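BUG-478 | component: ligand-complex export | severity: low

The export step for flavin-adenine dinucleotide jobs runs without errors, but we want the raw record kept on the ticket for reference. Input record follows.
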Amino acid sequence: MATKMSLLAFVDQAQQLPETRVAVVRKQDYKEIYGNFDSHMAAVQASRCSQCGVPFCQIHCPLGNNIPDWLKLTAEGRLEEAYEVSSATNTFPEICGRICPQDRLCEGNCVIEKGFESVTIGSIEKYITETAFQMGWVKTPKPAHENGMSVGIIGAGPAGLSAAEALRRKGYAVHIYDRYDRVGGLLIYGIPEFKLEKHIVERRRALLEKAGILFHLNIEIGRQTTLEALRSQHSAVLIATGVYKAREMDIPGNALAGVTPALDYLTASNRVCLGDTVKEYESGALNARDKHVVVIGGGDTAMDCVRTAVRQGAKKVTCLYRRDRTNMPGSAREVKNAEDEGVEFLWLSAPKAFIGTQKIENILATKMRLTAPDRSGRQNVTALGNAEFTLKADMAIAALGYDADNVPTAFGAPELHVSPSGTLAVNAVSQMTSLPGVFAAGDIARGASLVVWAIKDGRDAAEGIHTWVKTQSIDQEV
Ligand code: FAD
Ligand code: SF4
Ligand code: SF4
């Protein structure tokens, strides 16, 4: 029997997260570190919501999730309705509940954050959706009728998948093309298992396939086939290819063996977790075992690298970040998780050179100091004089972020306009690019961002495509 709670309980009920596996145990494997609420805990935690008239949590959720309503329904034990409300605006709530940086989004803006600590929105969203899967409330997104049109989607990451789901519901035949051998994009090959176990993504893939969405894997557009070919096969095409051009460190020694881009390292680790044989892992090139590992960067990718290195059995793992803890772009929760797992953070420190003969042996670094904020409000940094130091490193992982690859060149489509930062330029409402009937969504249009934004863009693009295709058919009839 479900627990039923009245609301506004934040004064009496303390914030509680689901059980978290202790660091000494969890760093021995790659399983997710957070457990799930039981029905009583979910109701108690949901009841802490004060049902704000202007819910800042919702405003700061990129999907505009109707958080107060599904918290109320959870507190009242009306879980099937809670799932209906939550899944109406979010295609993959069980994924967002796990990996959204909630401390920067919904929970970080919950008005009871100050003094009482926020409502645990993400964990409740995950609980609602996991319950829905268990109870059979999650239905295959099948259309009521086929509309005879087809859409080609390039990229099976969260942007492509959320668009596919929405288009399939509207009756389109949906074909997704991806150069990888698995569906999920960075959900599979970027984000580590300890944040998102891969069977969670696989469960969605199976549902989408059951709905009739066709996956064409191991096909790279621009190499094996062209954008033009897809345009001639489909009523519309969506480009959802993500951003993969790693920013490099322009310092001496960056070509030494052992200096590695973050995504190569994480992809190898994820493949090994999935049971693949990865030669560079076997040879030690992309394996941190028994090494002094230094990760450079302060974002979520850097946190994923340090925590993966811990699990691979590194001797010592250090994160070098040029700003301080307050100015770090990564989620504070992930920094805390990394610290608990034994990672050492060297704040206000930046590399000057990688030192070694053929392989990296040390890093020459310098201390930095914060200067005035830039236009975004974030403080800049400058090197301190006479503050150099050396750090032992058998492996240095560069996690400095990603830029967009040159899609117009890769796709042989110079008519595709790009933004000043190199992402595909799209209409803000329809997501259509400068090529009629070609749309773009996710990181390739927005720049390196978050899964929840990719989902939002994919849903918006599906609407844009539907409107455009309908308009085209009306024009043809006239
Ligand atoms: P992607 O997920 O990158 O998917 C793009 C797909 O397109 C890929 O499958 C790729 O193979 C395919 N593709 C590319 N080019 C072609 C081509 N020419 N032909 C065919 N297929 C092609 N966000 C969070 O919200 N929370 C996190 O915890 C988080 N952790 C992250 C950790 C790492 C290491 C990284 C790198 C990113 C992380 N992000 C996180 C960001 C998030 O993963 C991305 O914002 C999101 O995946 C973008 O979705 P997308 O669909 O646009 O692109
Ligand atoms: Fe919060 Fe993300 Fe869920 Fe929105 S989708 S409510 S930001 S966890
Ligand atoms: Fe509830 Fe916090 Fe959202 Fe207000 S801001 S509606 S208290 S979750």
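Assignee comment: Attached the raw record above. The chain has a mean pLDDT of 94.
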